[in-house]
Design goal:
With about 110 residues, the protein is mainly alpha-helical. It has one domain. Helix content is about 75%, strand content about 0%. It has 4 helices and no strands. The termini are far apart.
Length: about 110
């Protein structure tokens, strides 16, 4: 079975898509949200990041040509955004986790 034919991968991709849609539909109203709404929004962002990390790990472990190709495209996309990741998206994930933690700390202080 191909990487993207796996029910687990299909479910993960669907969950990622739903979380992305949820976040994108609310991103413009973030600054007008209540503190609790912002906390909830950040929680969804954390969930999305965790699912993306798991998917990337699966891509990295797979020898399926379609998975290898997707991983290479992700790495190239990150490089095109100007992020020096030494061809490793995990560095981007780590940077994003730090940003999320900073935002959470700011929310708790306000």
């Amino acid at each position: 079975m191909s990487f993207f034919g796996s029910e687990i991968v299909k479910n993960e991709l669907n969950e990622i898509k739903l979380l992305q849609e949820q976040l994108s539909s609310n991103v413009l109203s973030y600054y007008s949200m209540t503190r609790q709404q912002k906390v909830d929004y950040i929680k969804v962002l954390e969930d999305l990041l965790e699912k993306q990390k798991v998917l990337y790990a699966r891509l990295s472990l797979s020898d399926d040509p379609s998975a290898i190709e997707m991983k290479e495209r992700l790495n190239e996309s990150v490089k095109m955004m100007g992020v020096d990741v030494d061809k490793n998206v995990n560095n981007v994930f780590s940077q994003l986790e730090k940003v999320i933690e900073t935002v959470k700390m700011d929310l708790h202080e306000s």
